[in-house]
Design brief:
Blueprint: E1 2-8, E2 11-20, H1 25-37, E3 42-53, H2 55-70, E4 74-78, H3 82-90, E5 98-100, H4 103-108
Parallel strand pairs: 2-3, 3-4, 4-5
Antiparallel strand pairs: 1-2
């Protein structure tokens, strides 16, 4: 599992590789919060290379979304596979997040 952070035209892009689970969720949270504290306000988390997110991973995404919104920012998600998209629909989290089909689509709207 790894997280790659880059900047794309004023947007912080976090690419998640592997699974987002209880064992690594804090690492993702720390990376995003560091950038938030550094002044970044636009975030895209890309799940192109992610096959599974457990409940603790979902919890971290909700928590990050709330913190980013409180600072006047926005968190978007991209490239969820069919299983992950279904998970977000079943948990109604698709109403909380703006979810784009591709990383490029998520970056475009900012």
């Amino acid at each position: 599992m790894s997280f790659q952070v880059s900047h794309n035209g004023g947007v912080t892009l976090v690419e998640v590789e592997g699974q987002l689970i209880v064992g690594n969720r804090q690492e993702l949270k720390q990376k995003v919060l560091e950038h938030l504290e550094g002044g970044d306000r636009k975030f895209v988390i890309d799940f192109s290379n992610t096959g599974y997110i457990d409940s603790s991973g979902l919890g971290v995404l909700v928590s990050l979304s709330k913190k980013i919104r409180e600072q006047g920012g926005e968190l978007r998600l991209s490239s969820l596979n069919e299983d992950l998209r279904t998970l977000f629909e079943l948990t109604k989290l698709d109403t909380l997040f703006k979810i784009a089909d591709t990383k490029e689509e998520a970056l475009d709207g900012f």
